[in-house]
Amino acid sequence: MADGSQIRIGVLSCTNIVRKVSRAINLAPNATISAIASSITNSIEETKSFVLSNNFPPTVKIHGSYESLLEDPDVDAIYFPIPASLHVEWAVRAAHKGKHILLDKPVALNVYEFDQIVEACEANGIQFMDGTQWIHNPRTAKIKEFLTDPVSFGLLKTVQSCFSFAANEDFLRNDIRVKPGLDGLGALGDAGWYTIQAALLANSSKLPNTVSALPGHVLNDAGIVLSCGALLDWEEGVTATIYCSFLANVTMEITAIGTKGTLRIHDFVIPFQETEASFTTSTRACLSEHKVRNEIPQEVCMVVEFARLVGEIKYRGAKPDGFWLSFSRKTQVIVDAVKESIDNNLEPVFLSGR
Amino acid sequence: MADGSQIRIGVLSCTNIVRKVSRAINLAPNATISAIASSITNSIEETKSFVLSNNFPPTVKIHGSYESLLEDPDVDAIYFPIPASLHVEWAVRAAHKGKHILLDKPVALNVYEFDQIVEACEANGIQFMDGTQWIHNPRTAKIKEFLTDPVSFGLLKTVQSCFSFAANEDFLRNDIRVKPGLDGLGALGDAGWYTIQAALLANSSKLPNTVSALPGHVLNDAGIVLSCGALLDWEEGVTATIYCSFLANVTMEITAIGTKGTLRIHDFVIPFQETEASFTTSTRACLSEHKVRNEIPQEVCMVVEFARLVGEIKYRGAKPDGFWLSFSRKTQVIVDAVKESIDNNLEPVFLSGR
């Protein structure tokens, strides 16, 4: 693809995750980094040095503020590596400036905030996508094929998904994910986000009827979730359990059981290998191991798909693909419901109308 | 071992499971089948033909009733392949006759019944064991080693265990496991029994503080559990979820996550291979696959261990090993609690004092 047709992405601040995502943008043939904004916490000098050490294109513009980046006519879309508490303000402002949005999870502190982003995106024809990478791994498409195969898998009965990692002392004290004013949703908005999307994926993205937090959650002194589980309940006998934790060894499982088949994945969030990912299926007791090659890492797949959708709008007058906005919203609704159930003595939360 | 020192086992009736267990007794060097009882549903003629077609020793005595077998001085121990609703009566009678007891799960319809068996066993110096086979697979000992290793596994945070199989129409209509008068506890007393023991095993056989049934259980018209899940809760942040079902594809998983390591098994109830069983561990993100050879199938390991304990009592004046009575009782307490929670609008059941 000629450079002229690449989608130009602006990056809002330079945090650690930007190293991975900027590499992904560099590797995506249909996208490029055109600008980065420094912020109160990153001076222009720091941003310059970050840009140099992370192989940003030499043409990249460095803005002194988020506002300035939002005004840049050479920015088609913005990637937001900022705390969730700032999402609603900056994503809404970006949408009103006609910038497409790649937003890290959790997409907001709650769905009421997120609905302001939804409204701004819909009013301004903005393509939205949350920054969950594994969904874009080619393996995920193969998994969906199996989960919707009436012969090999049948009808879903239960899906159990789990993402944990043992955070160190420094993380548990200082990371934005354990601070009420910043990401606020703790392990639930971080590790839990992935497990909820795994449950939705297995259920054709259908919202469950009820969500109940499970006994045994752990909160820090500020009331932030460090570890919790939840049960999602669809029609009779179809359930999902999720488990997310900052306090347990790194584990990334999906086990989905249908009437005829079973799916198992042990590395669903970050595949053990960068260019090949595997999963196991069984139909009755007959096991198969599947390997799916991906020529490019999954975070690049994400950027490629995001830039493709933005390109469809920019060059071919297409409408935004609303799936991603809706998928993120459902995830946020479930995150909120788990939190509400925890705050309400583990009572089930009914999602009808949400 | 000379024949004279073999433990002589009597079998109470001939049902399908007897084919597997009688083969196991035949293969166990320290046990032999000395007698079988026919019953109202099996005539003496039928029992004779069963004995012939299942390679029972030619010396086996055929009794016309359970009572007659209980009086047989050439029977040291009894295996009870009879519905759970009959366990309390016949196990108590057997204990009073000095017969050691190998009892299929669920060991009783509830713990109040089971406590009568406990009392009779303790009053008469009876060795008790429930017929759960996987616990005796040499793999299980290796799993326990990993789960109690402070360096590789650390402290348990959560264990998720699941046993399901898709029963056919005939099973769902006629099997004793779905009949209120017979086994009565449905998938919970059958598949669930295994998952509960897996959770106990991972928690050093400690009873949880509370047990809560999860939303989404399925009952048949007679109120028998066909599918359900439950959450077991120990001290802060240590939990287990179990899932058992007659309605989902055959799946037999244990995933245990500690502070430092993770254990995964995909065939814990019946290993994919009869003479080798595997499991996977990871410490941090470093994976290892373990294979454990067993020279004899796991059901034979069970009989060998049972006969060894009975032999210790019979030949060396040892006392019964109380672990198995206590382990079965804890399992039954949890089965009862899940049932009680289902009957009580999924309220958590506190196990203190049970």
UniProtKB/TrEMBL annotation, chains A, B:
Organism of derivation: Eruca vesicaria subsp. sativa (Garden rocket)
Domain Gfo/Idh/MocA-like oxidoreductase N-terminal: 7-129
Source taxon at top rank: Eukaryota
Domain named GFO/IDH/MocA-like oxidoreductase: residues: 153-264
Pfam family, one: GFO_IDH_MocA
Family: Belongs to the Gfo/Idh/MocA family.
Annotated InterPro entries: Gfo/Idh/MocA-like_OxRdtase_N, GFO_IDH_MocA-like_dom, NAD(P)-bd_dom_sf
Protein's recorded name: Gfo/Idh/MocA-like oxidoreductase N-terminal domain-containing protein
